[in-house]
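subagent[fold] <- orchestrator: predict structure for attached chain, return tokens only, no commentary.
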Amino acid sequence: MTSPTIRPARPDEYDEVARVWMESWVTTGLEQASDVLLTNLRARLRREIERGWSLFVADDQGTLAGMLALHVSDHVLGQLFVAPDYHGKSVGRQLLAFTRELLPDEIWLRCARENEKAWRWYEREGFVFEEEKLSPVTGLMMKQYRWKR
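subagent[fold] -> orchestrator:
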């Protein structure tokens, strides 16, 4: 596999980005894939872009290997998901390295407490746990992390 290219997502890709988001999210075991979940993620993606998300994709020669959503002005990594076929192939590390290029001094993120695989990965990547809060969007308890240069 060649290393995917990280680039801004195009509006015509938003539905596919939401599908990658769903397929990756369901690998956590916290939710099952469904038409309702996909519809909700598609709507949320568009809402969040209107609210300031910068949306990027990891493009592996036309196949979306991952997605990344940032609130650059707030130093927030909103979402980072890797398509299941690309798990274990360093796409997540590549997306995180790209995030550190755009946000070189500080990054904030939230991760579902029950998504232990993800928050342990962020801790290995140098993020420090700050606090837990209930998400008004998902209803999940979220662990908040901070990385600072």
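orchestrator: received. Logging for downstream: Residues 87 and 118 are 12 Å apart (CA to CA). Helices lie at 14-26, 35-50, 91-102, 116-124.
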